[in-house]
Amino acid sequence: MSTLDDKINEINRLAIQITKDNDDDRLMNLSIGPQHPGSGHFRIVIKVDGDYIVYADPDIGYVHRGEEKMSEHRNFIQNIPHLERPVIHDSTNIIYSYSLAIEELIGINPPRRGQFVRAIAAELDRLVYTTYWLAIYGIFLGHSTMFMWPTGDRELIIDLLERMTGHRVTHAFSVPGGVRNDIPYNFKEKCLTQINYFEKRLKEYEDIFYNNPLLRQRTEGVGIMNKEDAIKLGVTGSVLRASGVPYDIRKVEPYDVYDEIDFKVQYMKSCDTFARAYVPYLDMKESCHIIRQLLDKMPDEGSVREKIVGNVKAQPGETYRRVESGRGALGYYIISDGSTKPYRLKISTGSFRNILALPFLLVGSKLGDMPAIYWALNYWPIEADR
Amino acid sequence: MLKDLVNPTNVNIYVSKLSDVLIKAVEEPLGYAINWGRIYSLWPVHLETGCCSVEFGAASSPRYDVERFGMLEAFGSLRQCDLIVVLGTVTRKMAPRLRMVYDQMPEPKYVIAMGACAITGGLYLDSYNVLPGADSVVPVDVYVPGCPPRPETLIQGCFLLQEKIKRSKIK
Amino acid sequence: MENKDNSFGQLIDTSKDLDNKITSNIIKSAIQNFNQKIQLVYEKPNRSKIFVNNESLVEVALFLRNTYGLDHVESMSGTDFPAENEIEINYHLGSYINQDLHPYILNLATRVDRENAKSNSLINIFPSVEYFERETYEMLGVYFVGHPRNEPFLLPEDWADLPPLRKDFKLKGR
Question: DSSP letter string over A23-47?
Fold first, then answer.
């Protein structure tokens, strides 16, 4: 079986070579997106030879809103709402590194309880993000159940976050100096109940989705990116960990209270699309584990926020802080000239770094594999465009 | 007398009068039936222009399930769609594409502007790449406020659009 | 260009003891190898910044990659300084291969002239810099010599204004 497949692949590859050399008219240009079920705010221009992709060029920037320029005209606190908009369903994480950077520039430390609450919110947001990602992956592969289940379970975690922060997705919860407000009464018990239920559901996801032979056939051995290539392309997050590099910012450069938490960096060595689809799922399991520890270790009393004045002035200097978001390392490079506004603010997002791998993975694979490869890159277009 | 009545110019007038009478006779029941059909099969285009798409996805989730109110899931081809939900920010790069998608859809077509960005530009009012609202590109029927709007708000916007369709005349 | 009085760098205390000895080793050896061409701007735990003349950017980057395994670019950005008539380009280098350098980020900075902004591309050394350099080209108007695609990326195709992240590009109402 496998030898035959290899032979077919070999023949097809030769055919591609011949076509490339001799006849360009046989190639067809396809422009997919931005209006396309599943493409999102994203266009990709590909050239196909029959079923095989010979050229791919992502065209991004459909939601480029000039966040970096805008933030030069707002002060450090005013910047929070619009900076979290690129990933509204992972908003605590995208503001987390911003808060860390501003704390470093102002020179304050959040109180211990505030650090714990912030980490809990960040982990819950990671679950919210990844369930949404999983739901869309279900649509991409024509698996409607996998859209319905995660979006349904996601609402329960959103309820928790809504109790905690006051809004469904855009929380603006993490601020320089801690979190905006304390957690509500009885939150710990509710959170534990919800997490226990969610872990039970995660097992069912595995049964219906990851052990599904159809998914396995569509993803296993497709879009191989080995370790060397992953390192060369500088990908991050789950894409990197699926290629066998155990690199997680929470582990290698622990921020806030993550150095007190005991967790494993989940990674796989199979380097294919299945690994890239499975690592976020493993991350969700690990997140549940982390949340339980955070709830356990959190001090019961104490303030959650170091108060700063609204129009706070930062010390002149620069900083680069990063956290592990749902899509990988999320860093802020902020230069301050001593005024109340950043002189320059640069967001380096995981999506923008991961999309570089897309043309690399697509060239040589079949057109039908494109949705599976594309969405397994853990790519959120708005975050890449900023 | 009859000759006066049946000369060629008059015939045209009679025919047009007759068609007017016919239309008046069937417009009300037929229009009601047609609008009733349109109300409960609103089929949105899958065109995401901004970050409200997350809440749009949540609106078709099991908890909110916008399908039970007659708004289908956004999986179809745009040639069979009759609704655009402008999901947030319309950037300069997206605006021509939005118009192109709108022009390709068959009549009748409706537009919902979802989120503060699609109404006025919202948070991004001073950005260099964001248009101040979707109504400079496409004619908007219903505005759904919020940043992002909760799925309930989108469902209410859907009701408002259905009310609008119910009261409009068929063309 | 030479001996830039970098006002942002001087405020940081360089005498602080570092947790990680290897990071200061990198900078020491880099300065030894390319004396005069490299200036240390600051050194903090896990973060440091060196300033390189634009002519020797490529060889310094190649040295850092080959010797210490700083193998990818975490972030890359440009900053406009109209008062000094220069644009600063920052490459934030990180490492996946070298376990000791996992938490470390080296900011490799260089400056180019604002009127004739042109710099050598590092795309052959760090392939991960491809999209970042394209973005910097259109946002700040820095032309990267050796980069295959200096063309619009995030902005609309018909953008005919100044590059938006330059300081003399004004937002409406601001």
Answer: -GGG-EEEEE-SSSTTT-S-EEEEE
| Domain of residue A301, residue span | 67-384
**Separation in Å, CA C103 to CA A104, A106, A265:** 17, 22, 15
Classify residue A4: in a domain, yes or no. no
Q: Are A92 and A166 a contacting pair, CB within 8 Å? A: no
Asked whether residue A378 is assigned to any structural domain, the reply reads yes
Q: How far is C11 from chain A (nearest CA, A)?
A: 7
Minimal C-alpha gap between C84 and chain B (Å): 25
Q: What's the complex ipTM?
A: 0.82
Residue A342: strand, helix, or coil? strand
Residue B13, helix vs strand vs coil: helix
Residue A32 included in any domain: no
Q: How many domains does chain A have?
A: 1
Is B127 within 8 Å of A66 when comparing Cβ atoms? yes
Number of helices (H) and strands (E), helices first, in chain B? Answer: 6, 3
Choose among C110, C106, C109: nearest CA to C94. Answer: C106
Q: Residue C2: what residue type? A: E
Residue A49 lies in a domain: no
pLDDT at C14: 42
> By percentage, how much of chain A surpasses pLDDT 70?
93
Closest CA to A43 of C127, C58, C141, C154: C154
Residue B96: enclosing H or E segment and its boundaries? helix B95-104
In a mutagenesis test of the B interface, which of C139, C153, C155 is the best target, namely the one with the most B β-carbons within 10 Å? C155
C107 touches chain A (CB under 8 A): yes
Optimal mutation site among B43, B51, B137, interface A, most CBs of chain A within 10 A: B51
Please tell me the distance in Å from B86's CA to the nearest CA on chain C. Answer: 19
Would you kindly state where each structural domain of chain C is located, as residue ranges?
21-117
- pTM recorded for the entire structure: 0.85
What would the two tokens of residue A36 be?
Answer: 């396309």
Q: What is the CATH number of domain C21-117?
A: 3.30.460.80
**Chain segment A273-283, per-residue pLDDT in tens:** 899 889 999 99
- Domain B40-167 - what CATH class? alpha beta
CB contact under 8 A, C126 and A234: yes
Residue C139, H or E segment: helix C130-140
Question: Does any CB of chain B come closer than 8 Å to the CB of residue C3?
Answer: no
CATH of the domain at A302: 1.10.645.10
| Mean local confidence (pLDDT), C138-149 | 86
Please check whether residue B49 touches A, CB under 8 A: yes
Residues 6+ apart with CB under 8 A from A297: A116, A257, A260, A261
What is the rounded average pLDDT for all residues in chain B? Answer: 83
- Give the CA radius of gyration of chain B: 21
Contact C72 A348 (CB under 8 A): no
SS3 of residue C88 by DSSP: strand
Looking at residue B74, its pLDDT comes to 72
